[in-house]
Amino acid sequence: MEFSLQHIVYLLLVVCTGLSAGLCFTWGNAVAPGIGRLDDFGFLMSFQQMNRVILNPTFFIVFLGPFFLGIINLFLFKNASSNIWWMLLVAVLTYFAGVVLVTVFGNVPLNDMIDKQNLEALSKVELKELRTAFEAKWNQFHLVRIITSIGSFINLIIITIQITK
Fold first, then answer.
1. Looking at residues 102-107, what average pLDDT do you find?
2. Does residue 163 or residue 153 have the better pLDDT?
3. Which residue, 63, 92, 103, 136, is the most exposed by fewest CB within 10 angstroms?
4. What mean pLDDT is predicted for residues 50-71?
5. CA–CA separation, 154 vs 160, rounded Å?
6. Which domain holds residue 100?
7. How far apart are CA 27 and CA 154, in angstroms?
8. pTM score
9. How many other C-beta atoms are found inside a 10 Å radius of the C-beta of residue 28?
10. Residue in 62, 76, 54, 77 with CA at minimum distance from that of residue 17
11. Which among 60, 46, 56 has a CA at the least distance from the CA of 111?
């Protein structure tokens, strides 16, 4: 089988979307519940450190890759069947709205709120108030990211099945 540019770019889209969905799922399924068991200081410190560490080139490729690769794929698949093109558009828009926009306008402002704090200087009451203002909202936004990233990935798998028929 010969691989064209279209195949390679599509494969990269599927892989990046799958990695992003896996990251969202794992964070929501294991990381958030695990650190949720910590006391307020431990919880906030963990989030503060993880949010600082995750901002790296590999993360940005996996996080933003599905959107940019999706746009490229929409162009590369412009002559495909309309069913495939529309499904691809839905996958790209779902990922963009539910992962990228929710992250930028929902999770990141909450992350920034935590990051600005000198946690060691806060009282137990202030730590509790900060966690209360953060945790439930952050997890609600993250649930949207889990659902939409997995939905986008499933859509791409369905497209892959249709392409390979």
1. 98
2. 153
3. 136
4. 95
5. 10
6. 16-53+63-163
7. 19
8. 0.93
9. 16
10. 62
11. 46
Phi, psi of 99 (to 5 degrees): -115, -60
Position 1 in a domain: no
The residue among 90, 58, 74 whose CA lies nearest residue 10 is 74
Residue 2, in any domain of the structure: no
Cβ–Cβ < 8 Å for 150, 23: no
**Which two tokens mark 80?**
């495909």
Among 56, 102, 77, which residue's Cα sits nearest to residue 14?
77
Residue 80 lies in a domain: yes
Tokens representing residue 136 in the block: 């439930």
Give the Cα separation of 82 and 50 in Å (integer).
Answer: 42
Number of domains composing the chain = 1
Alpha-carbon distance of 144 to 2, in angstroms, equals 38
pLDDT of residue 82: 87
In a domain, 5, yes or no: no
Q: What pLDDT digit, counting tens, does each position of 115-145 carry? A: 999 999 999 999 999 999 999 999 999 999 9
- Token code pair at residue 109: 């402002």
Nearest-10 Cα torsion for 34, 37, 42, 48: 50
